[in-house]
Amino acid sequence: FGVLNRINFNAAGYEVKPVIISPERKRQLNRNLMLFFTGFSRFSSDIQETTQKALADKEKQLLEMLSLVDDAERILTSKTDLNEFGRLLDYTWKLKRGISSGISTDSIDGLYAKGIEAGALGGKLLGAGGGGFLLFYVEEDKREAVAKAMEDLLYVPFQFENSGTRVIHYTAEMYEKR
Question: How far apart are CA 27 and CA 168, in angstroms?
């Protein structure tokens, strides 16, 4: 979808609503986010299956996580110190980890702890869990220390994209009529 969006899920499917922030605030958010590939892969469907089983017992945590979406949007769209967004990422990551043992691993927890010790205010594992990409919120003066702490991981520079997913290369497949 591009840009920065809030996605609300409901019985009919989902609704995508852009989160409108000033260009300068968006630039600052881009500067403060660092993405690293953990090197661990997993089948997200396996993680989601174990998470689904655990959800029945975790209603309180899930409702709290849902309410924090409003807090995150408020932080991003107001004049609130943007570092609060980083702290909120840390808090929500800890909530998410508590939902199912499959969401994180000892190795991922160790990487996350190294990032926090190096100066990241917060972060999260993207996707279902178990591997993939770690996103950290890092103040500019701590970026070098976090990069050094994560030097064994692949750093993936990124920024928010306005136009969403696009095909950047296409090769036609061979088609034979029978």
Answer: 24
pLDDT at 48 over 60: no
* Backbone conformation region of residue 51, classed left if phi is above 0, alpha if psi is from -120 to 50, else beta: alpha
Q: Is 128 helix (H, G, I), strand (E, B) or coil?
A: coil
Strand order in the sheet with 122-125: 122-125, 133-137, 33-37, 154-155
Give me the residue label for tokens 């997200």: 44
Give the H/E segment covering residue 60.
helix 59-77
- What the block records as the tokens of 80 is 């609130």
Burial category of 159 from C-beta neighbours within 10 Å (exposed 0-12, middle 13-18, buried 19 and up): exposed
Cβ distance 127 to 95 under 8 Å?
A: no
**What tokens appear for 87 in the block?**
């702290």
pLDDT for the residue numbered 47: 44
Rg (CA), the chain: 18
Per the CB < 8 A criterion, the answer to whether 157 and 175 are in contact is no
| Token reading at 131 | 């591997």
pLDDT tens-place string over residues 66-125: 899 999 999 999 999 999 999 999 999 998 888 777 778 888 999 999 999 999 999 998
Three-point CA angle 62, 117, 76, nearest 5° = 50
